[in-house]
Amino acid sequence: MSSGFPIPILLLGVILAGVPLPSAGSAPVEQQAADTLDHVAGTVRSADSGLPLAGAMVEVVSTGGSAVTHGDGSFRIAVPDAEGYRVRIDRLGYAAVAVDIRPGETAAVDLEVAAIPLPDVVVTAVLSPTSANETIRPSAVFAEETLQRQLAPTLAQTVESVPGVTVTSMGPGTSQPVIRGLGGDRILMLEDGQRVGDVVNSGADHATAVTPSSARRIDVIRGPSAILYGS
To answer: Which among 124, 117, 120, 147 is positioned nearest to 132, based on CA atoms?
Structure first.
C-alpha cells in the first residue's frame, strides 16, 4: 500500500513548479495596465458668453474614446500614453471643432454659435406642416432669393413662371393672373390671411392692388386644395 504515495506527491510538485510566484516588489496586473494610460482633459465654453457648455460630445479621433461634458463644461477621457491626440467636440447649436490636446494638459475650447440648417416646410394648402417633397398638392412658393429673382412690377408677372399660370393684360401695369384658365373673381387673393379688397374684379383694365415688392413670401395654390381657403 505504501508504494502508491510517491505518485501524487510528484504530480503536486510539478503543478507548483508551473505557477509563477510574484516577486516582492511587483505591482498587480491591473495596476500595471493603469500605469500605461493617460488622460486628455479640458473645458468647453461658449465663445459668445464665456459660460461653460454642458452636454457637448467629445471624441478622441484615433481611439474612439468619448465623453460628454459635465455641468461645468469639463471632460476627461482615458487614452494610451502618447504625445498628443486630435479631439473632436460637437454640440447642438454650435459649430463643431477639432483640436489637438496633449495628455496631462487641460485644454480650454470655445465653440461658436452656428445656425442649424432645416429643410423648407410648406405650410399652405394642407392642414398640417408638410415638406415640399412630400406634398402632392400643386403649390408654388416664392420667398427670399427666389422671390428676388422673379420679382416683377405686378403680382401676375411675378408668378407667371408657375406651371398653369398665365397673364392677361390690357396695357402696362394692368396685368392680372389667370390660373388654369380661371381669372377675375374666380381667383382668391389673401394678404396676411385676409381677403384683399381689390378693384381687379371690376374690369380687365385694373391691376391687383397687391404690390409684390413689399411681399416677403408669395404662395400660389392651384387645384382643389384652394378650397381650404374658401376660393
So the answer is: 120
Instruction: List, run by run, the mean pLDDT of 10-residue segments along the chain (231 residues).
Output: 46 44 51 65 93 94 92 92 89 92 90 81 58 64 86 86 83 77 79 72 63 85 75 55
As a whole number of Å, the end-to-end CA separation of the chain is: 114
Q: Which domains does the chain have, with CATH numbers?
A: 35-116 (2.60.40.1120), 121-229 (2.170.130.10)
For residues 63 and 79, the answer to whether their CB atoms sit within 8 Å is: yes
Contact assessment for residue 212 and residue 155, using Cβ atoms and an 8 Å cutoff: yes
Q: In this structure, what is the dihedral angle of CA atoms 157, 159, 163, 169, given to the nearest 10 degrees? A: -30
Residue 102 sits at the vertex; the CA angle it makes with 101 and 106, to the nearest 5 degrees, is 70
